[in-house]
């Protein structure tokens, strides 16, 4: 599907979203996929601030805990890698690696995590500019000024 940040794809397996990413992909006729795509459209149209479609990425250990922590960050709010480091008892660098390998960007909001003195990174085409756009879209841009 097309979004303000370019094409986004969503993958569904066993009645849940398991992955998403940047670029084009083939569609399908799955009710969970239709719901996920409808919710992504609603998110970009500012009609949705929390995804309700089931999301179950294949992640375990620290990566799984980080993805759960990312999912708990409310729309329009941010955390730092250091905040998550303290909460999860893991080094900030490990938190950053887990964020960078997020298999479900946008639906699991890794864009809401910032460095202590910088924006950190982002996997979307456009990198940091896309992250800034998403934070602005969510009303968190005041944190960037």
From TrEMBL:
Reactions this protein catalyses: a 6-O-methyl-2'-deoxyguanosine in DNA + L-cysteinyl-[protein] = S-methyl-L-cysteinyl-[protein] + a 2'-deoxyguanosine in DNA; a 4-O-methyl-thymidine in DNA + L-cysteinyl-[protein] = a thymidine in DNA + S-methyl-L-cysteinyl-[protein]
GO BP annotation list: DNA repair; methylation
One Gene Ontology term of the molecular function aspect: methylated-DNA-[protein]-cysteine S-methyltransferase activity
Keyword field: DNA damage, DNA repair, Methyltransferase, Transferase
Signal peptide coordinates: none
Enzyme Commission (EC) number: 2.1.1.63
Residue ranges occupied by any Methylated-DNA-[protein]-cysteine S-methyltransferase DNA binding domain in the UniProt entry: 65-140
PANTHER family: METHYLATED-DNA--PROTEIN-CYSTEINE METHYLTRANSFERASE
Record-linked NCBIfam families: ogt (TIGR00589)
Protein name: Methylated-DNA--protein-cysteine methyltransferase
Species of the source: Roseicyclus elongatus DSM 19469
């Amino acid at each position: 599907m097309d979004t303000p940040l370019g094409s986004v794809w969503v993958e569904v397996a066993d009645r849940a979203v398991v992955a998403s990413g940047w670029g084009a992909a083939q569609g399908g006729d799955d009710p969970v996929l239709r719901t996920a795509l409808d919710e992504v459209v609603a998110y970009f149209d500012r009609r949705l601030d929390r995804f309700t479609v089931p999301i179950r990425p294949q992640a375990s250990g620290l990566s799984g805990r980080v993805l759960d922590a990312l999912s708990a960050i409310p729309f329009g709010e941010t955390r730092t890698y250091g905040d998550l480091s303290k909460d999860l008892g893991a080094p900030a660098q490990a938190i950053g690696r887990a964020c960078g390998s997020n298999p479900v960007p946008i639906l699991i909001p890794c864009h809401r995590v910032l460095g202590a003195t910088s924006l950190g990174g982002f996997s979307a085409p456009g990198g940091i500019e896309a992250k800034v756009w998403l934070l602005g879209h969510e009303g968190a841009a005041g944190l960037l000024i």
